[in-house]
Design goal:
321 residues, mainly beta, 5-stranded antiparallel sheet, 6% helix, globular
Length: 321
């Protein structure tokens, strides 16, 4: 099958979200998609929960045909902050280099923390500061974080704002409430904890999605800040005039670990991963088939994100042969 035939086959799939990276290639769970100077890059964990030992990597020229690459990062050795788990990550460009903030644990009983790696080309990565240490843990003053407490500190998402970096992440306060928390940095290596941004009580209902916040993502468009997060009824979003204050939650769909991103032609996309479309995200993944990566289109209607068929977006300005 030629690349053109494969592209047409993908776009002919009957669902709006197209499976572009099948489970025969690899399972995809937490993931990040970013455009580099030479290709689109997918960084992901292939296993659920704390089972990831590498940050996997795939590349694509067109978001449709993906090729699995060597892992971007592997977990460290004994004593390193990532000796046990290396998982959810976010990649941002800063002064000509690429920085990856990722969650990790040094041992089975340890709480999660964040570490950092850097790359000049998105292909080869080096951990910073290079001594096996982490770069961030939540302040015990609000989170009750302890070295061995298995408390939440995961799914970092970093944006640039007014010359500094803001990192949103999942946490929990001293009373066990779920939080979207915030930290701030000038150099991506040294972080100041700003505490909880949004707090909610956990809702225990295995049919209706995660009991607390999962995978916060910030998207900036037309001067508005869109906070997307998995919570209870699936993927929800809230809109703010700045990156610190957001309005009421609005439901968007049942997608798992989604990433919302755009290309250089202002075409927008939304992803879905790990579980068959629409499956409750708290159902044990061991009881259902694991999947690859799905990508759908996204259009904006008076500031409202609307998922659409991938083919309706990706072919608008560049028809496939």
């Amino acid at each position: 099958m030629t690349p053109a035939e494969r592209r047409r086959e993908i776009l002919a799939q009957p669902s709006a979200m197209k499976e572009v990276y099948g489970p025969d290639q690899d399972t995809v769970n937490p993931h990040m998609i970013i455009r580099g100077p030479d290709a689109w890059h997918l960084f992901y964990g292939s296993r659920p929960g704390a089972q990831n030992a590498v940050i996997s990597h795939a590349a694509s020229d067109d978001l449709l045909i993906w090729t699995r690459q060597d892992p971007a990062l592997r977990r460290g050795g004994p004593g390193d902050c990532d000796a046990r788990e290396i998982a959810d990550s976010c990649v941002v460009e800063h002064r000509g280099r690429w920085y990856m903030v990722y969650q990790c644990t040094p041992s089975r009983a340890a709480s999660r923390r964040f570490a950092l790696a850097v790359s000049d080309d998105l292909w080869r990565w080096e951990k910073l500061p290079g001594d096996g240490s982490h770069i961030f843990t939540p302040a015990p003053s609000w989170s009750g974080w302890t070295e061995e407490g298995v408390l939440e500190c995961k799914a970092p998402w970093v944006i640039r704002h007014e010359g500094r970096f803001l990192m949103y992440f999942n946490g929990e306060n001293r009373w066990g409430d779920s939080c979207i928390a915030l930290a701030e940095s000038a150099d991506l290596l040294h972080w100041e904890d700003r505490g909880p941004l949004i707090t909610t009580r956990r809702i225990e209902n295995p049919i209706q999605g995660p009991s607390g916040f999962e995978a916060p993502r910030i998207v900036v468009r037309d001067g508005k800040f869109y906070l997307f997060v998995m919570h209870f009824w699936g993927l929800q979003y809230a809109i703010g005039d700045d990156p610190f204050h957001f309005g009421p939650w609005q439901a968007l769909g049942p997608w798992h670990a989604p990433v919302i991103f755009s290309d250089d032609q202002d075409r927008w996309y939304i992803t879905h991963a790990l579980r068959p479309f629409g499956k409750p995200s708290t159902k044990s993944p061991l009881l259902e088939p694991l999947r690859g990566l799905y990508i759908g289109g996204l259009v904006w209607s008076e500031g409202v994100p609307v998922p659409v068929d991938l083919g309706d977006v990706i072919q608008v300005r560049s028809p496939l042969p």
